[in-house]
Specification:
Largest sheet of chain A: 2 strands, antiparallel
Number of helices of chain B: 8
CATH architecture of chain A: Orthogonal Bundle
Oligomer: heterodimer
Number of domains of chain A: 1
Strand content of chain B: under 5%
Strand content of chain A: 5-15%
Radius of gyration of chain A: 14 Å
Largest interface: A-B, 24 and 34 residues
Helix content of chain A: 40-55%
Order of helices and strands of chain A: HHHEEH
CATH topology of chain A: Arc Repressor Mutant, subunit A
Radius of gyration of chain B: 17 Å
CATH class of chain A: Mainly Alpha
């Protein structure tokens, strides 16, 4: 399970993304790229700076939801755990948005 | 007093409990889905939604059970108080539940402080079951319905339409419960509208969980 933003007691304002939301955005970009995404695609797709991208990719790798392959040009893909997470997330997002809640 | 009004509708007692049991199962399913969502996303509004539907389900279950006990006792005088007690518990549970949902919407839009919303909900609890208290419940439901209507107008998705339809039906149901104090025939109509609202929520749940 991917945790939400640590210490975020209040709901984040819409212009700021929670850590959880960034994780989802990164994974969504990877999924969109046929589960084979280069860092540059993720950087633009998830709208992150290079430093933050590296940080989040490492965190997602340690959570076991993405994996890195390739030696020169790195390519990231979702693991089985990551695919299952995204499927569950889509259901939760659909459920929450039906009530008008944003996650 | 309620029983005296409801006497011409004695034939319907039992059906109302059955409808409430069905609604209870659907409310429990919505609560479970909201809890699953909270566990995944840690989004607080989903936790409020979970507790809201837990309360709605619990209220419906208690009300349904009290109706069945009274029916099985063949309206024995000693058991009649249970009917009123079940209704009151259901009413209070719904008042807190819809108050919690309103709080969740208010917190999301940040139009109101948490303390103010909490005070409004607690203040509402001081009212006992009567037309005025029922009106408070309707006001809460009208707010939720308006919010879900706005959500539907923005998103135009089938799921948001089902949720909007569900809360609109629940609002109508509570209006009928209010009218039932004057005209008994509104009692079965209210239960039908309430069940219809929960069936719409079931439709939304089935759509959300269908295999992609």
């Amino acid at each position: 399970m991917i945790p939400g933003e640590p210490g975020s007691s209040a709901k984040p304002a819409s212009k700021y993304r929670s850590q959880f939301r960034i994780y989802v955005d990164v994974m969504h970009v990877i999924q969109r790229e046929n589960n084979q995404a280069k860092p540059t695609r993720i950087l633009y797709g998830a709208n992150l700076s290079h430093d933050r991208l590296i940080k989040y990719l490492e965190e997602l790798k340690s959570l076991g939801v993405i994996q890195e392959s390739g030696t020169g040009d790195k390519v990231y893909s979702l693991t089985q755990k990551g695919i299952e997470f995204m499927n569950n997330f889509k259901k939760v997002e659909s459920f929450a948005s039906a009530f008008g809640f944003r996650i | 007093m309620l029983l005296a009004i409801a006497q011409p509708l004695a034939w319907f007692l039992g059906f109302d409990s059955l409808m409430e049991f069905i609604a209870f199962v659907i409310a429990a399913a919505v609560a479970y889905q909201a809890l699953k969502g909270y566990r995944l996303s840690k989004e607080r509004t989903l936790l409020y939604l979970h507790f809201s539907f837990v309360l709605i389900g619990a209220g419906l279950l208690v009300d349904g059970l009290s109706g069945i006990v009274v029916l099985l006792s063949q309206f024995h005088r000693g058991f009649l108080v249970l009917y009123a007690l079940g209704y009151t518990i259901n009413f209070i549970a719904q008042l807190i539940a819809y108050g919690l949902l309103v709080f969740a919407y208010l917190q999301q839009t940040r139009n109101i402080s948490a303390q103010f919303a909490a005070t409004a909900v607690v203040s509402a609890l001081f009212f006992e079951r009567n037309a005025f208290a029922e009106l408070i419940l309707i006001f809460l439901l009208v707010y939720i319905t308006a919010h879900t209507a706005m959500n539907y107008s923005l998103s135009k998705t089938t799921n948001s339409m089902l949720v909007f339809g569900a809360f609109a039906s629940l609002t109508i149901a509570h209006f009928f419960f209010l009218m039932f104090m004057l005209v008994p025939i509104f009692f079965p109509l209210a239960h039908i509208a309430q069940l219809f609202g929960f069936l719409l929520l079931l439709g939304m749940l089935l759509r959300v969980n269908q295999p992609s």
